[in-house]
Amino acid sequence: MLKLPEKDLVFLVKENYDLIAVAFFSVAITYVLSKTWRRASGVDHGEGIPGSLGLPFVGETFSFLSATNSTRGCYDFVRLRRSWYGKWFRTRIFGKIHVFVPSTEGARKIFSSDFADFNKGYVKSMADAVGQKSLLCVPQESHKRIRRLLSDPFSMPSLSKFVSKFDQMLSQRLKKVAEVGKSFMVLDFSMKMTFDAMCNMLLSISDESLLRGIEKDCTAVSDAMLSFPVMIPGTRYYKGLKARQRLMETFGGIIAKRRNGTEHQDDFLQSMLQRDSYPSSEKLDDAEIMDNLLTLIIAGQTTTAAAMMWSVKFLDENKEAQDNLREEQLVIGKNKGEGYSLALEDLNGMSFGLKVVKETLRMSNVLLWFPRVALNDCTIDGFEIKKGWHVNIDATCIHYDPELYKDPLQFNPSRFEEMQKPYSFIAFGSGPRTCLGMNMAKVTMLVFLHRLSSGYMWTVDDMDSSLEKKAHIPRLRSGCPITLKAFS
Ligand code: HEM
């Protein structure tokens, strides 16, 4: 070690006094600021939950983005931290502290006091893209009213017409791709199928070029929902907002035609407009109708289409389940007779089919977790949560918990013969924000499974199981190409 005589040391200090003073104050200020910031953000109080918050604001954002940009998918970020810290961990993404809630008890606590102690965080880009009056963005009082007024067309009995229309549309399209005999992507097929069926049910649109135009704009809006909100040409946000303007014009045009009597249809929109003369608490205004039309299309298309794709993949890997499904569905078909069309009541006989739907949703976790913000300090499973922290109900962790599901990585629809513990199956969420399209999604999938398994055998033409990059809904990168062979 360097040893200086005392007089040299005094000389050195005198000569560099300014430098030493600046260095000393910098260290002190950094220490005080970091302490104040840690206290303000609640970091020092959450010692109970392990995890790394990294640097202020940045936190672990780059690791999260890197997982999202990889073919392992964004849940890999969560999986990795669980392996480091255990079931409960916290992190910081884009300046916010996130806790991933892994238990049924945690899910119960959050779902059952949604809006009171927890709420969806306000995301500007989402509200701008999908609309301020969307169910996804409105405050509690409007949410309750809008949801009540939107619900009826999505109740099981109201879906009878949808079932027979969807069945017809699907049968024709499957027949066509089977006749061509070439490999096709299930994902592209199911995206188009669900989109066209939903636009038909909501707005009675069947014109092909109009449908493709609306679909393109809805995709742009969906891409803008989680983008950086700056109105600069070329950005996802800009493109999404422009697409929204076009969609609002299209929807507005259709509403005007219905009102002036040029057009009348038996569909969702007509049922909303029939309430025009009702008191304001019993009807939706035009902005509410249009924002929620857009919300329903966006919330319904990608989720249902991804689930349809995963069912094909899982059934291909589990021939026993596929055989059981086919057996059940062939009996239903035989009982109906030649050239039959499915009716809503026929779906009641699809008990194994329904288990395939649930098992597909359990394993695919189309929505990986459900984000909320804590409105007050609270404890969940004994862990202290601070007001303002983001608590994500981790559906994936719950669905893969070996204490709730034996051999959770095994696709086994029969497991649903047993009663499920409360909050152990939450693919459609729970509480006041339970999926509005849950019944529609179930009947869509049942009809799809029926027509596919009773009419065709299929081979998956690309076994690669890597995931699409930059996607928030897990989907196969390959799009799941298959070739169909009709039963003669
Ligand atoms: C397999 C398909 C589907 C899955 C897995 C699914 C899942 C979910 C989940 C988990 C939620 C609640 C999210 C949360 O609590 O934060 C939700 C909400 C919602 N879903 Fe679905 N969904 C599907 C299909 C559909 C369809 C077909 C529609 C419309 C026709 C739809 C419309 C909605 C709407 C509007 C909400 C918001 C409800 C509210 O905030 O009150 N979903 N969905």
UniProtKB/TrEMBL annotation:
Family: Belongs to the cytochrome P450 family.
Secretion signal span: none
GO cellular component: membrane
Name by which UniProt lists this protein: Cytochrome P450
Record-linked SUPFAM superfamilies: Cytochrome P450 (SSF48264)
Any Gene Ontology biological process: brassinosteroid biosynthetic process
CDD domains: CYP90-like
Taxonomic source organism: Erythroxylum novogranatense
Chain residues that bind heme: C435
Gene3D superfamilies (UniProt xref): Cytochrome P450
Cofactor: heme
A Pfam family assignment: p450
Predominant localisation class: membrane
